[in-house]
Amino acid sequence: MYFQWYPGHMTKAKRMMQENMKLIDLVIELVDARMPLSSRNPDIDELSKNKARLILLNKSDLADSRRNEEWVSYFENKGFSCVMVNSKKGGGIKSIQNVIREACKEKIERDRKRGILNRPVRAMVVGIPNVGKSTFINSIAGKAAAKTGNKPGVTKGKQWIRINKNVELLDTPGILWPKFEDQSVGLKLAFIGSIKDEILNIEELGTEFIKFAVNAYPGVLSDKYEIEETGDAFECLREIAESRHCLVRGNELDTLKAATLLLDDFRSGRLGRMTLEEPVRECDS
């Protein structure tokens, strides 16, 4: 499988972020806790040079809890502020405002020395498609301030949201980058739904996910679908189709439906907490 998805609106969104960066004190980058490195857009580092940074490990309730702690340490060792959150259920959200002020304490102190008091911290919320930016903003704002959806591309333009007198957030569309140098990154982005399913071969994606799950979390698929985990990923997919009565006319097994079901079960956490990658020393070089 070859992964690439960079529609024209992403170029426009990147330009908009670039133009607004001068108004910003802090960049809040949401990453998916199940794959914190692969869900980071390398362009964002370039765009937000010289700005205070906060990384939120979103959907941390779907990720392996042991790995979450390791990733927080990884990013803190890199000099980032880092917090685990679950925007959908509000986990970790209450602590964010204090973290924002802590991350911007130098800027707040500079303002104070100039006699500028009570100017709100302005933060840009960034991340890849479907990472949960709008859900996070609504959670911290306590109201439906930003459009949300469980598919990429819901936020189309920028919008400012005032959280309180101390913090204003700029919501931005999710952007990927023009070329995935490492196709395994593209594969993981496809697993979590950050690349449009409509442009993917879902059966192939399902078999690739089975290979990962059998290797990294043995027993999970056999427990969930009552199948035998073998070295033949497509045979496992056929067994899932049989177990879940995914059939087409003529009682043929519907492996496309089974793959869709499998990916949906992973994305929603019905397979349990799973992390697709772990911090390794090579990443620190």
Overview of the molecule:
The chain has 285 residues and is α/β, with parallel strands linked by helices. The chain is 40% helix and 14% strand. It contains eleven helices and eight strands. The protein has helices at residues 8-20, 42-47, 65-77, 96-103, 105-113, 133-141, 183-192, 202-216, 220-225, 233-243, 255-267; strands at residues 26-32, 52-58, 81-84, 121-126, 159-164, 167-171, 247-248, 252-253. The strands form two sheets. The protein has a six-stranded mixed sheet with strand order 3-2-1-4-6-5, sandwiched between helices. Strands 7-8 form a two-stranded antiparallel ribbon. Helix 8 crosses helix 10 (233-243), helix 8 (202-216) packs across helix 11 (255-267) and helix 10 packs across helix 11 (255-267). The chain starts with 7 loop residues before the first helix and ends in an 18-residue tail after the last helix.
